[in-house]
Every structure is written in C-alpha cells, then in structure tokens.
Amino acid sequence: DAKAVDQYIDTRLEEGVVRHTIQKELVALRGTLKVAKRRGDFKPDVGAVMPDGFSAGYKPRVRFLSGDEAQRLLAELTPDRAARVAFILATGARWSESDRARRRDIDWRLNIVHLRGTKTEAAARAVPIVGASFDLLKHAERYAEGSDGLLFRPWGNCRRDLNEACSRAAAAALSAHLEAATQTFEHMSETEQQALRAAFAFPSVSPNDLRRTYATWLRQHGTE
Question: Please, what's the b/e burial string for 139-170 (b: 16 or more CB within 10 A of its CB; e: otherwise)?
Fold first, then answer.
C-alpha cells in the first residue's frame, strides 16, 4: 500500500541512496504492480499506491574530454584499455558495442566505422572518421589485444579503472608542475595546497562521457 511505499522511500534515503536511483526503482515497482493488477494478483489502484510528485533531482552530465585530457587519460591505461578508450573517443561507440568490435569494422577505404549496436533499431550504424578520429583509430588498431576476431580483450570494472586512471593523471600533472616549481608542496600553506590540487584536478570519466566527447568533437569539427 501507499504507506509501505513511503516507508521504502524513507529507508532508501536514510541509506544514502541518490534520488535518481530511487526513481528508477519506483518505475520498476509501478511496472510490476501494473502486471500484477492485470493478472488479478493486486487489487488496489496503482496510482493511489505510488507516490505523487517524487522528484529524482536528476541533472544530466555534461562532462567531455579536451584533447589534452584524452592524451593524459590514455597515458594512464594499459595498452589494450587505452586502445578501447581511443576507439570509443573516435566513434562514440557504446561500451557493449566496443565489446563486439572487430578489426574489419574499421573501413579505411570509405573512412567509416561499422558499430555493432543492438540497443535500438538505429544502433547498428556506420559513423564517419573525421578529425582526431584518424589518429585515435590508428592507435586503437595498433595496441588492441583482442582475440578470436574481437578487437579488444574483456574489461570488467571499467568505471573503477577509468576513475583510478583519472586520479593518476591528476597526480602526474601535479607532480610535473612541482618538479618545475621552486617551492615544494610541503612548504605551501593548506590553502595553497588545495588550490593547486584543484588546478590540476582531473574529473572522473564514465563510458558515456567518452561517447559525449566524440559527439562534442564531431560538432566542433562541423559534422552533425
């Protein structure tokens, strides 16, 4: 009933779960109750049970990489993983599409890449090779370590590995700056240290951020 749903929401919020996740769970619950009602297993009105006006408070991410950030990220990854990131930056492939990528999908004669998408009707598509995509795809071809016809090796916890690579990139940039500076980090005030860390911060990157980077670069290159 409505009381049970409200208690569930309160419990999830107390657990520290973000509202966007709770919203997804409520969508799943609503769908489940609709099926149960159609089958006669749930009698109350679904609309009366579900919360009215629960806001996810979701803000779309706008993160994308600059060319310099892309180079720094690739430098912190193992060769095959850097090759996969380069492939996604060059094509806008979904992660699952990069899992299915094969060398023959890169068509240098027509300057297009065939993506083996299955998520939507338009997911299986060909994308143009323009701008920075040329060098990125050459990098992907050279360093990819896939077998059995696949371009890349399996990659499990990609979000964790990408975030750790971003942290290493930030640390490397800060270290290089300090080597060239006359003042050591230990002799700076806490405020100066925080400002320096912020200046060389490398925000985390998700697989979707890599896709957004491709789209942004494509627009910057004048290609729809």
Answer: bbeebbebeeebbbeebeebeeebbebbebbb
Residue type, 34: K
- pLDDT truncated to tens, each residue of the chain (224 aa)? 999 999 999 999 999 888 889 999 999 999 999 999 999 999 999 999 998 878 777 677 899 999 999 999 999 999 999 999 999 999 999 999 999 999 999 999 999 999 999 988 889 999 999 999 999 999 999 999 999 999 999 999 999 999 999 999 999 988 888 887 766 777 778 887 788 888 889 999 999 999 999 999 989 988 87
Between CA 170 and CA 68 the distance in angstroms is 12
Q: Would you say the pTM of this structure is higher than 0.70?
A: yes
Smallest CA-to-CA distance from 76 within 161, 196, 199 is with 161
- Residue 129: both structure tokens together: 């090779």
For 74, other C-beta atoms within 10 Å of its C-beta total 21
For residue 112, give the 3-state DSSP assignment: strand
- C-alpha to C-alpha distance for 212 and 206, rounded to whole angstroms: 10
Beta bridge mates, 116? 124
On whether the CB atoms of residues 159 and 207 are closer than 8 A, the answer is: yes
